[in-house]
Amino acid sequence: RSGCVPDDRGGSRKGRKGTDAVVAFPVVTDVHSFRGEIVPGAWRDSKNHIRIARQAAVVFGADFTADLGDLGFDCFGTHRTASTREQAEIRLRAEETLYRDFPVPTIFCIGNHDYGCADWKPGEHVTAAEFGRRFNGPARVKGVSFVGPDSLDYGYWDIPGKNCRVIFLNTAELAPRRGVSPEQVAFFRRALETLPKGSVALALSHITPNYSLALWANAKPRTYRGMDELRTVAEAFVAAGGRFAGFVSGDSHFDWQKTVNGVAYLTTQGYGSIGASELPKGDGVVHRPRGADKCQCLIDVVAVKPRSGETRLFRIGAGGAEADRVLHNGFGKENR
Question: Looking at 51-110, which runs of residues are DSSP E strands?
C-alpha cells in the first residue's frame, strides 16, 4: 500500500464488501505533469502513475476510474513555463495514450489548469468542449451512457446494475476558470431530483463546492460563482431524505473533509504540492509527502455500497492505511 510501482497492488479488498453490492473506482487528481513525452519507469513524472491507477482498477474489479483534473496542459518543461498550443497538444496526446485501449471507463473532471494555458495567463488553448470530447467522449463511444450536454464537460452516469448515479461537474466553467453556470446548477438539481428510487448519488469535481473551507492559508477570499447554489441544492435534497453520499474533489493539494448541513465534502491530495506555510490549519487538514524522491504514488480507491450508502476511501501510496477515510456512514433504514 505504500509502494510506487505498478506491481505493488496494495492487497485485496475482498471480504470487506459483505452482502451489499459495491461500486469501486480509483481516483487520480492534480497530476500537474509538465513533461510532454511518456518515459516508462520515470516515476518522478506523475502522469506515469496513471498506469498504477489502471492496474488498481483491474485488481479491485473497478466499475470505472476517475481523474479529477489539473492534468498539466498549462505548463511545459517546468511548472513556471506557460504552454503554447502546440506544447499543450503534445501533453494532451500523451494523456490520451495513457488511457487508450483501457477496458474500464474513465470519468474526467476538468480542472482550472486544464485549459492549456497557465493559470496566471489570460486566454485558453483548450476549451471545455474539447476536453470533454477528447477525454469523456471515448467512454461514450464505447457505450457508456453519459447524460449531459454535448460538450461532456459535465454530466452523470447510472452505473448499470449498481443503483449508483455518479455526477461529474465542471467547477472551472466560468472565468477565471472557477465556478459553475446557472445551467450546470440546474443540471445538478435535475440529476438529484430524478435519482431512481433505491439508488445513491455521488458527485465528483475538481474544486470542492465548499471551496472557502479548502483554500490555502495565503489565499485571498474568493467568490466562485454558482458554488453556493450547488451546496444549497445538495443540502435541500439531503434535508428532504435524498440519498446523496457527498462530493469527492481534488484541487486543494491536501486531504480534508467536513460535513456541513448534512452534506459531506472531501478533498484528496493527489499529486499536487503545497508549502508548509500555505497549508491551512483547519481540523482534519493533512498533507502527506510522497517521499524525498517524489516517486511514491498517491491514489485513492473509492468504495460505495449503494444499498446502505456507506462510502469509504482507501489509500494506495503516501499515507497508507492511516489515510483511509469515511465519506458517508450510510443512510438510516427509512432511506434505503
Answer: 65-67, 106-108
